[in-house]
Specification:
globular, three-stranded antiparallel β-sheet, about 10% strand, 12 helices, alpha+beta, 8 strands
Amino acid sequence: MWIGFTDFMEKLLDEEGKVMNEMESDRVSVVRKLLMMSKDKRIALSKIYHNRLLFGIPEDFRDRIRKYEDYFKVVVEEDGKRVIELVKWDPTLAVSALEKEYMVDEDKVKKAFKFPIKHGKALDLDEGDERKLNLLYTLPLVSPYSDGSKLDLWTVEAEKFRVGLIHEFLSLTLEKRAYIHNIVEFKEEFCLTKHTYQMLLKQPRTFYLAGTEMNWSVFLKDAYGEDGVLLNKDPQVLFNEKLYRYADMKVVKPSSDVYET
């Protein structure tokens, strides 16, 4: 028995391979940024492999990273687990998407998140004073490239760090969205808590959550237009969309039998 691809499918595979090769430098930067956000600047290879489609990382990335010894080092731990470690910190990469946006539209970013301070009614604040007080707890966000493990877990500062980190994580994905389970798979590396879902619910201006309780998707709202379409599409996303269109095609054979590709 022999099974193979049609010429049509072979051309599609070649096209996808070309996209992956052209985008390799960008994907390398994504992995570097993930490592720079991680607590110990190291992540299990299995976790990156499991979530590779989120970031457009090719299946053979474990072989490709051998070309980047200046950036990565792969070590094998005593239990046999392979871990990728950051070799060199790059300050030019340690700038989040939010920080870049802040330089362009400060007011927009200021309105993106809200971290109101809890206070007693004894303060007897009017609406204006309360708004000023809450503003102190809105910005600046804590950089996702800082060491979140040193923050007191339940402080406003720590929550700012976690919110900023998830924003940056989503900004690195192809479609600016991810399932909750994709995010919490990095819980230990990114100093997240079991209350990640509840934390995101408190930031409806920036995150949109959709799905079911066991399978929530988290979207970056600003990455999508009012029609729900992604505004800026990565070349891999454009190729995937083409593949989906082909998958929906119906092919008519000479015998008039119809089958779906």
